[in-house]
Amino acid sequence: MERIRLVGGHALSGELPISGAKNAALPLMIASLLTEEELVLRNVPRLADVRQLNLILENHGTSIEPVDSDPGFNGMGGQTLRFNTPSITSTTAPYDLVSAMRASFWVIGPLLAREHEAKVSLPGGCAIGTRPVDFYLDGLRALGAEIELDEGYVIARAPKGGLVGAKLRFPKVSVGATHVVMMAATLANGTTIIENAAQEPEIGNLAECLIALGARISGIGTPRLVIEGVEKLGGATFEVLPDRIETGTYAMAAAMTGGNILLRGARAENLRAALDVLELTGASVTDEDDGVRIIGPNGPIRPVDVETQPFPGFPTDLQAQFMALMTRSAGVSKIKETIFENRFMHVAELARFGADISVDGQVATIRGVNELRGAQVMATDLRASVSLIIAGLAAKGETIVNRIYHLDRGFERLEDKLRACGAEIERLDA
Ligand code: EPZ
Q1: Which one of the listed residues 53, 100, 113, 126 is annotated catalytic?
Q2: Which of 203, 251, 263, 268 has the lowest CB atom count within 10 Å?
Q3: How much is the pTM?
Q4: Whose CA is nearest to atom 17 of ligand 1?
């Protein structure tokens, strides 16, 4: 099994290109199921999750072809892919495909909208909490779908003539449920109003893509989305937005190592809350024409308390990385995780570096230590894994991160990017 070896103590410096966002690329790819015409997506990151979703889409009849590869900065540009689904060949998304990645459940929206039926296995994904799908199902029911659960599958049927626009309100902000109901509503009869919709930039990216395909959507970036159903969607060429979580991750790494890096292509407006927190730690954050520059604190890292929140708040997907940074702060900080109930699995692994962290329910208390020491650690989920890389970059001596397949799900060419900025990091085959 592949592992990553790194030797800490090098300040990151130089330029690091930000890839297309995994969490935008996945719903955009799924949206291609809504139309019989071609969707061309640019800046798709080369990730295990993208390859897994390709398999899922192919199972429904989508053909996926690379157009060309834009080598971009340092040969690290994203790929351009063409998605064509002239007809849906299967409305079933089987367990063995869906269980590997939670977002694959989202095909339920387009399948139901276009074919009026879907049979989709209940999802898997990172083990960060129970992660139910009740909001999705209630949302689709509001559009007229009949839903039953049978042996681990959700079986959904639209009324004769298709889904019907409706007004609905999610009880809690959900990124996935917003994606799914928005996609389904594009082809419904009449107008759908989603209240308490997620406002994450990835939702905006999907909405803009759907509009490019011919959908009628307003309220983007607000908690109230209005979708007027249309009969058919067409084709489009669309670009995946830069990954704000990758941006925040490398920003924390730069701060942690006292580095100075330009995150090329990053959009500061998509992670303002996290960048504001970084500034409070003493790091300098500057918007430049071609990205965001992070310079590590000139002095000790200051402790800052953080609570995860839906966008525009501090993202749960940066919680583990920020915790790694706080392990070296000159004081005590608290992190409250409000989105997922079991997203502190990195705590035990960070402790192997000598970090001092205690957890009480949803709150972690981190007492900064003077030094982290390299360790053998194990990746547990995608974002937790990269928090171990951040800790290793600042630790004294050698760190080995095991089970790195989690990292490959969401970080494109992590070792190459970090090595180009001066990190001592390599992938070991066994
Ligand atoms: C998306 O997951 C992201 N995944 C997650 O990133 C991210 O952590 C999460 O949003 C929150 O920002 C993708 O975009 C592919 P939710 P999602 O529905 O949509 C509860 C990563 O590392 N809930 O917004 O699954 C749920 O349990 C991943 O890239 C219900 O109770 O998250 C959670 O507490 C991990 N019932 C909260 O809502 C439902 O039907 C928010 O989850 C749906 C959700």
Answers
A1: 126
A2: 268
A3: 0.97
A4: 176
